[in-house]
Amino acid sequence: MRDAPQQVYAGGRPIDLHIAMQAAEWLTTMMSGQATTAEHRAWSRWRAQHPDHERAWTHIEKVSGGFRDLDARASRKALTARPGARRQGLKLAIVLAAFGATGALGLRTQPARTALADLSTGVGQRRELLLADGSRLHLNADSAVNLHYNASERRLELLKGEVFITTAKEHGRPYRPFLVETAHGVAQALGTRYSVRQETGHTMVAVEQGAVRLSARDSGASQVIQAGQGAGMTAQRVGAMQAVSSDVWGWRQGLLLADGMPLRDFLGQLGRYRHGLLGCDDAVAGLRISGVFPLQDTEAVLLSLPNSLPVSIHFRTRYWVRVQARGEANVNNVVGLRAAR
Q: In whole angstroms, what is the distance from residue 242 CA to residue 284 CA?
């Protein structure tokens, strides 16, 4: 039986649980007494990204004075003795106390698991990390992973989004396989560079170098894919292999590469790098788009679409954008957006 969603509140109004968790994460960072100048700047940027971020922070500051008044030395010890477990436990306590969550039920839902992940990125953010074994992890926007390293395996649990991994050679004994686990199965590296993207209903894997073995979760169906190939996987089966191009990894350089990509798919990928709703009408969803697009300025990308496609961009609000057939949107929508900045 699937857990029911847990509603939490900030300032008397509902707020997304993931945003509440982010606010709690920032509070634990500030409480640690070790926040760097860069972290203070990132905290300010996060607050400015969306009105709900500022609302969550204002709320948590107002109601969590008891946490902020903890003895500084005690709080630093709690956060550094066991960085993962202690920090996550404190963050849970803050959310429960500050946002009105009534128990652990909602904190087992997917939004909560994502917010409590060992490593995560928000909308438009990307991270690169060196793992304990020397493997290198690139985390795409709006993604989250848990790390499970022990004496028998090196396993990444991909909770959401996409990762690109360059695996390091394992020198220890016994040999520990490198695995990426998703809701649909496992992708085992066979000395490789590869990406794993979890979507609703399936997981996509693309191999740049080496090979990867895919194993479906429920059926045990297995298949090895080689460099330059990709395949999809559900919990029951592994799909047919197909050739992939470097387009699928453009995000690592901050670029969205499209080569005849359907507009609906293009907007779906672009939406990972901006807040709010981004969609298109069925009448234009199948239009094909090609080009190289910078992910740091998604608004400029959207406004450039009418230059190459018969579409108009309809900004209902700054955070609600829809692409329509040319002539259906009013230019005043664009002007109104710019005036609202």
A: 26
